Amino acid sequence: MVLIDWLIVAFYVVAAVVIGMxxxxxxxxxxxDFFVAGRSLPWYIAGTSMVATTFSSDTPLxxxxxxxxxxxxxxxxxxVSVIGVIISVFFFANLWRRSKALTEIELISxxxxxxxxxxxxxxxxxxxxxxxxxxxxxxxxxxxxxxIIVVILGLSPEPLFDxxxxxxxxxxxxxxxxxxxxxxxxTAMSGLYGVVYTDLIQFALAIVGSVVLAVIxxxxxxxxxxxxxxxxxxxxxxxxxxxxxxxxxxxxKTATFVILVCIGWLNYAPGFGFFLQRxxxxxxxxxxxxxxxxxxxxxxxxxxxxxxxxxVASLVYFPSLVDAEQSYPMMIDEFLPVGLKGIMVASLLAxxxxxxxxxxxxxxxxxxxxxxxxxxxxxREKAHYIKAARVSMLALTLFALIVxxxxxxxxxxxxxxxxxxxxxxxxxxxxxxxWRINVWSEISALITAVIVGNAMMYILPDEGDAxxxxxxxxxxxxxxxxxxxxxxxxxxSKTPTPKTIEFYSRLKIHGRGWKKVRDLTGxxxxxxxxxxxxxxxxxxxxxxxxxxxxxxxxxxxxxxxFGYYLIVIVASGWVVKRKMPKVIASLRQEV
Length: 591
What we know:
- It is a multi-pass membrane protein.
- It is found in: Membrane.
- The chain is mostly helical.
- It contains 26 helices and 2 strands.
- It has a two-stranded antiparallel sheet with strand order 1-2.
- Strand 1 (161-163) and strand 2 form a beta hairpin.
């Protein structure tokens, strides 16, 4: 990198801090302003912010590494998420926005009867999700950023000094600390306002950088006979490299694919983490729904292929890499000229800061809104709780950096989280559509998923190329579902409690699971058109996945298969166009 590259990087860091300063006063008005931007975000701002946050520094490294080691179809580990996101669009987003909760965890106190068990669950989940899971995510993006810095800047790995708990501090570590401090500063000043508006800059940089790199690489491969011929001739090529869907054989790869498609999306359907935070920050139910739809389209259709093309092409240029996750930054260093390299590096640094600022704001919202304010320090002025949120962000940053020193693999972090979190999602979905779900249902699901998920790591450990994480996830999900169902039938009352009736009366949820409450109260649901929602949901899933796979087949010169997908694109798109107006008309439209 030369001076102009560094100036581009510096411009983004300074711009992010300036944006934080501009929104400081607005964010300090209330915790709702600080954590959910005063519920003022239009769909395109909220949705773009989701895309930018998932455009984290670890994602292109993970994608490129997975393609090299397993093949294109390895991306189904994150492609399946869009099934859950689209289901959330049509069945959960409007309900979350209608709840007016400040965090996902707050819903526990809205949904379940007041008890020590409810308080325990709220506190435990706030700490488990807000600290433990949150810090693993932060650690994974920090690990990715360190790999990018090492490859592109070529800094010495020699330690400069040691710090207890953190270990050896290198030049790379110092750069990460500077970026983390900048992210903490503007996030602490501006809350979610600063997060989402810096995300817009990050999204623009990331799209430009990744697309330009992919185009340069794709064009360069034409001198090698085209991308398909060049990759097939590379030493690292195997029969699975260019497959978007694995061969259906009785083997572990096929089982992994089927399991991911069947249940890998579960945790995205009921809403979680920063996705849910943006949904709660939307200015209306319509905006909440459309923000997720926009995210689903960008997440899968716009972003996938630039990363995959670079990952596949790296087999041609760097066939003998030991660490596959270093292939993406090495391709940046190899192909991008002065200026464009600065944009790409700035986008990756911005991606790191974008994910960090989101996780910090989200994590602190749990700690303050669901632990500190309701249980530890009650009835203080709003400024006190905003100050507590800013302090908690700093504590989360320090803890996450410690976790980073213990993390060895980005993919390993994703797999571990999936095995624990996805099984819990079964009860998180059911609590919206079955009145008998109670606090013990959720507690039993949480305990079962944690115990069984961790036990399965010892029962079915990964060995060489045998990756058992999906099987572990399936076994944990089935066990959790059975335990949750049994506990629910044993512990739930035969008639709806006053809390259950109040929850339904306020949210007016459709579906047969609330029929008994509906008959008891005489209150009809707001959105009764469940058939239109279901048809639009299925058509949207078909439309987005057909676009994804159709574009991929065109890029890899399989024109016949592209033609088949084109038919599905047109047919499903027509259904979506007809049904979406009816779905939107059934929502509360007020801002």
